[in-house]
Design a protein that fits this description.
Helices cover about 40% and strands about 15% of the residues. The protein contains 11 helices and 13 strands.
Length: about 270
């Protein structure tokens, strides 16, 4: 990784609906939220000792359930952005509703958005709702999910919106998202992050709070082995090691709003 690399660590704070939606496990909403709550608390405790600022994309459902935890994010120097109102379903008006919920709780202007499951978003709708940047695309091919192989990898504009894609590496567009940190040797993941950073000038890495909860290992959730691999305590350790190694290369950890500012200033 080159010196002074710009890195945005981002976390999609949501209801842990993966067992119910993807594996048909009747997981109650209260438990979905509690698993994510545990992961958020552990992340905040770890980040407090690392001296880095990150961006939390938070659903309105989670924010209403744990407003004090969302306020803690802001008080500890992190950015809170919108992850829609519900992670499970989208309704007309959710761009606005989620923004209003988060702004009421944080008493901050919420300017960023990421759609659940990187499903893409309506730039004009986001602009009308008052957002300034969107991070709802992963420009790679994921079987059964999406084929975004031809999408732009760099920060760019779509109308009035600043678009910040998730990071991928090399011409093969190897995704550097959450699952890569589970499955790749940490040295390979770090090297690919360095490749991507040199190619496009920034890193936008995203994770979920439930990955960092030890609950992820409970067999009743029926989560596949490849998601459980290196999850919980091990993933916290791997992320802390990544941060330490990047800081050793004098990397700059900034929020997504700061990246939107700096990227568009030079265009």
């Amino acid at each position: 990784m080159k010196k002074n690399q710009t890195i945005c660590l981002t976390f999609d704070i949501e209801e842990f609906d993966t067992p119910r939606v993807d594996y048909h496990v009747p997981l109650p909403l209260a438990r979905q939220l509690d698993i994510s709550r545990e992961g958020v608390a552990r992340l905040l405790d770890m980040l407090a000792g690392m001296g880095v600022s990150v961006t939390f994309f938070v659903t309105g459902v989670f924010a209403n359930a744990y407003p004090a935890l969302v306020r803690r994010m802001v008080s500890e120097g992190h950015e809170v952005a919108s992850h829609s109102y519900s992670h499970t379903e989208f309704r007309q008006g959710d761009y606005t509703t989620s923004k209003e919920v988060l702004e009421e709780i944080t008493q901050r202007n919420v300017v960023g958005y990421r759609s659940p499951r990187m499903a893409g978003a309506d730039a004009q709708g986001l602009s009308r709702a008052g957002y300034r940047y969107d991070s709802s695309t992963n420009p790679c091919f994921l079987p059964g999910k999406y084929n975004n192989f031809g999408l732009e990898r760099r920060v760019h504009r779509q109308g009035s919106m600043v678009e910040i894609p998730a990071s991928v590496a090399t011409f093969m567009r190897v995704p550097l998202f959450w699952l890569s940190l589970h499955l790749m040797p940490l040295s390979l993941y770090f090297w690919l992050c360095g490749v991507s950073g040199r190619e496009v000038g920034f890193l936008n890495l995203y994770f979920h709070p439930w990955e960092f909860s030890e609950e992820i290992h409970n067999k009743d959730l029926r989560v596949p082995f490849y998601i459980r691999r290196n999850a919980g305590d091990k993933l916290l350790t791997r992320l802390a090691m990544f941060i330490d190694r990047a800081k050793g290369c004098q990397a700059r950890f900034i929020t997504m709003n700061e990246l939107a500012d700096s990227a568009m200033e030079v265009r």
